[in-house]
Amino acid sequence: MLAEFGLALPQDLAAVPRAATVRVRSAEELRRALRQARTCAVRLDGSALDRVLGVDRERGRAEIQAAARWASLAEHPALAHPGLAAFGAEPGAAPTVGESVNVNGAGPDGAPVSRHIAAITLVTPDGELRRADRQSNADLFRLAVGGQGVFGVLYSVTLDLASLAASAAAARAPVRLALGDDSAAAGSASAIELLVPPQALDRFLDAVRGIAAERRVALRRVSVRRTLAEEETRLRWASRDWAAVHIRFGVRGSLGAAVHAAETRRALLAQALDCGGSFPVCDLRDAAREQLEACYPGLGVFLAEKGRLDPCDRLQNPWLRRVRAILREDRCESRWSR
User: Fold this and answer.
1) What value does the mean pLDDT of the chain take?
2) Is residue 159 part of a domain?
3) Residue 201: is its pLDDT beyond 90?
4) Which helix (H) or strand (E) element contains residue 53?
């Protein structure tokens, strides 16, 4: 599912119809689905948008539909570049081109995928098919790349093949640290990725050991990879060079396992922030409002742009609902505490 389009909720919630699922295979079908969304809620299935639309050998570019998977592109005869498989291969990485663009995921060399994007084509909530790059519709480009999918439904992405090849050639595998116990890999587990200044990494890892011991959780895997800064996108997680620390730990087989795992993740998040770090904005499971606003001070302006470009709030997704819930819950708590 790529997106959800809905109408303003009536007072009688029981009267809200279930969203119809519409499978789309072309840009025109995307536009028709959005027109349909003006009168009823629609859930889009864009999984069929997975083709290579064209390769411009002279300019070194390829236009690829948003649901194409990085792994399949590596074997595509028109591209024939095995290095593409390195994109989306890391734990937790977005497997498709469109998902990578929506979260501005880090490539194999640690640079966000925005570095490799020449242009995007998306259908905006008003039903318009728009192409955006650094010169044309530049504001939309900066909002949509890394914009968590709230400014439009990606139809295609035009990638710079030389840039992709250079990223793959400079790939740096994550460093696995001897903090975890792979022999205890059976059973349930939870994971979190946190961003830490490289100079604070040793301090943070010491704290991770302490939290694991205090909370009696088994660290199964801890890996670190370098990520690089970018300055192009509006809601950027890569505001500086980070050490991205992926932590996987065991979860108790008990009734309160989910609560215990969430508390452990929140403790790890608080420690990362105490070390001057941050967290990827795509994962909001454990963030409080003050943490979210401290790490992403431009969030208010970003949401204001969402309201300006989609005043009827047609395009929605779980990420947007979670952001609003964090802000709403904290406002309610402050009213009750007075």
Assistant:
1) 87
2) yes
3) yes
4) strand 52-56
